[in-house]
Write a structure and sequence with these properties.
78% helix, 11 helices, transmembrane
Length: 228
């Protein structure tokens, strides 16, 4: 049974603080930056933290694979990263902080061998209890005037898929594979975003972005042993 301190650490790592940092970052930097920096920071923190705190020293092949994945992730978001200015650096710092919190969650969930269902339930409920009062007191509750169809869609997409199922599957992967190997799936975030953009936004990726997707996928295949 997780106590309050451990529950709060998990909530900070993957609950409302993590989410708010990412959202605040979007006010200063493009979403493409978030797709690269958040998972990259998470992988770095998970790998280094797992090495020092969990004595989970990654093999040479894993380090090589992680490097390939991070290069691929950077190339996948290259266009967005190269077309920004102004206060984008502030948004980038917020994205890195969000990724670091994600990495802390990864290390903690592995160190404490948390149950995926329990962790998901606790993080989701506590985040709701912390955020709802702030939202209704100081925010602008657009939910009260939003169309029912939009509320249903966002509830399913953000609430069920992004908040619950994604966290559940990720936590389970970390407990089974370990902090380092479990975290590398984050490197596919910009790649998957680029693929979805083709069908949803009719945005065709550049050759550099395609190369990044291939590299990130190849790095993951390399790590999981499908190499000669």
């Amino acid at each position: 049974m997780l106590g309050l301190p451990k529950t709060l650490v998990l909530t900070v790592g993957q609950g409302i603080p993590h989410v708010l940092l990412g959202i605040l970052g979007l006010a200063y930097a493009p979403a493409g930056h978030a797709g690269v920096l958040i998972p990259s920071a998470m992988i770095a923190v998970s790998t280094i933290g797992g090495w020092f705190f969990l004595r989970d020293r990654p093999e040479k092949a894993v380090l090589i694979g992680i490097f390939i994945i991070m290069v691929g992730a950077t190339l996948s978001g290259w266009q967005s990263m190269s077309e920004s200015g102004g206060q984008a650096w502030l948004g980038d710092l917020l994205f890195i902080a969000a990724g670091a919190l994600w990495g802390i969650y990864t290390i903690a969930s592995r160190a404490w061998d948390v149950d995926a269902f329990q962790a998901t339930a606790l993080v989701s409920v506590i985040s709701m209890l912390l955020y709802l009062p702030l939202y209704f007191i100081w925010g602008t509750p657009g939910i009260l005037s939003a169309p029912v169809s939009e509320i249903v869609f966002q509830s399913l997409f953000q609430g069920v898929f992004a908040a619950i199922l994604a966290l559940l599957f990720y936590t389970k992967a970390v407990t089974v594979l370990g902090a380092t190997r479990g975290s590398i799936f984050g490197g596919l975030v910009p790649c998957i975003a680029s693929v979805l953009a083709i069908f949803v936004l009719s945005e065709v990726p550049s050759l550099i972005e395609v190369a990044g997707m291939v590299l990130a996928s190849g790095g993951m295949i390399y790590i999981f042993g499908f190499r000669k």
